[in-house]
Specification:
Layout: H1 4-15, H2 19-33, E1 40-44, E2 60-64, H3 68-73, E3 84-86, E4 100-106, H4 118-125, E5 126-138, H5 154-163, E6 167-174, E7 185-192
Parallel strand pairs: 1-2, 1-4, 2-3, 4-5
Antiparallel strand pairs: 5-7, 6-7
Bound molecules: S-adenosylmethionine.
The site of S-adenosylmethionine has 22 residues, from helix 1.
Length: 197
């Protein structure tokens, strides 16, 4: 559950940026991942415009973000026929009954209450052979604020990926954020859920 302070922080972020800036950011992200689509895609923490979903090919697109109702009240979210909006946070998807071919999660795991334990939930949401596309900032303690209240250590990521039973396809650690053009260490990676046996 996001606190009032965290909700306001997220809303301010979206109110202070434009749709065009958002679309350009999603394009940079998709280019870095080399992702163009999959039969079914879930994106977690999309923000009001559906994150990458409007720019990819997929028969089934779902956007999960706990703040869709607040985005709508602020005049930010416009209902789309192209993707389904779920007003839900990643932690609440632990027992979600459906699985998909790709889960995208950008600039979200260091927000709110989420952390590396969310990787376990992502793994459950993937079909065997499905892929997890991750972008995350690794803030230092000095870079924390009302919207980012915990430090994610790079050294814990590998353990979280292994514990979740995912395999690394590729990942890279940058000393800046090549998507937001911001001064945070950032990991961009792709991980796969193996077929059983
Ligand atoms: C900085 S925005 C990133 C949006 C988009 N993915 C991008 O990269 O442009 C972070 C988003 O994560 C959402 N968020 C925060 N905590 C979350 C959680 N626990 N589960 C899912 N989404 C969350 C916020 O509402 C916000 O829209």
């Amino acid at each position: 559950m996001l606190s009032e302070q965290q909700i306001q922080y997220e809303l301010d972020y979206w109110l202070e940026s434009t749709r065009e800036q958002n679309d350009a950011r999603q394009k940079r992200l998709l280019d870095l991942w080399g992702f163009r689509g999959a039969p079914s895609v879930l994106e977690i923490g999309t923000g009001p415009y559906g994150g990458c979903l409007p720019q990819i090919e997929s028969g089934d697109k779902v956007a999960a973000d706990p703040l869709f109702l607040q985005f709508e009240a602020a005049g930010l979210y416009v209902r789309s026929l192209d993707w389904v909006a779920l007003p839900i946070c990643i932690e609440a998807m632990e027992k979600w009954p459906e699985q998909c071919d790709a889960v995208l999660c950008a600039n979200t795991l260091d927000h709110g209450d989420s952390d590396w334990s969310a990787v376990d939930i992502v793994a459950r949401l993937l079909k065997p052979g499905g892929r997890f596309y991750l972008h995350v900032n690794l803030r230092t303690p000095e870079q924390l604020n009302e919207g980012h209240n915990h430090v994610l250590q790079y050294s814990d990521l590998e353990e979280a990926i292994q514990k979740a039973g995912l395999c690394r396809i590729r990942s890279e650690k940058y000393d800046y954020d090549p998507v937001e053009y911001a001064d945070y260490e950032t990991v961009i990676g792709i991980f796969e859920k193996p077929y059983a046996g």
